[in-house]
Amino acid sequence: MSNELSHFDKDGKAVMVDISGKNETERTAVATGEIRMNPDTLRTIKEGNIKKGDVLGVARVAAIMASKNTYNAIPMCHNILLSSAKIEFETDDKNSLIKIKSTVKTTGKTGVEMEALMMVSVAGLTIYDMCKAIDKGMIIGEIKLEEKLGGKSGVWKREEK
């Protein structure tokens, strides 16, 4: 894997990478994150008693919408036609958090890592927004790429340390 940054030209100016010469391949990216909260907040979400509505349902829709609009928020991202954008939530009562996992797929000339990371980020932010009236101390974190498949660099998977 090259150590050169691809979003700069020879003069150090920011550029959008030229992907015109790349081959289309199937590409997948998986990202994860979490949002920590008070146990009462998690219980209220699970019981469906947040006044703004179905927290995880709204977060799911927000995440999918965000994946399709990543290029609008991240300046050097390409506008990518997505084949699939999936978001999963897992509640963890012991640690009082919600685990967030996204999987994004496309067939194209560039990867979907940013779209997967955007989904997790926006899902966490949406959960925060919907619950901030009862818990302003929530912490969104541990957002990371877990794996990517496809393209010239092939497969990359996070190694647990």
Automatic annotation (TrEMBL):
Its EC number is 4.6.1.17. GO terms for biological process: Mo-molybdopterin cofactor biosynthetic process. It catalyses: (8S)-3',8-cyclo-7,8-dihydroguanosine 5'-triphosphate = cyclic pyranopterin phosphate + diphosphate. Substrate binds at M76, C77, H78, M114, E115. Pathway: Cofactor biosynthesis; molybdopterin biosynthesis. Keywords: Lyase, Molybdenum cofactor biosynthesis. This is Cyclic pyranopterin monophosphate synthase. It comes from Sebaldella termitidis (strain ATCC 33386 / NCTC 11300). The lineage of its organism: Bacteria, Fusobacteriati, Fusobacteriota, Fusobacteriia, Fusobacteriales.
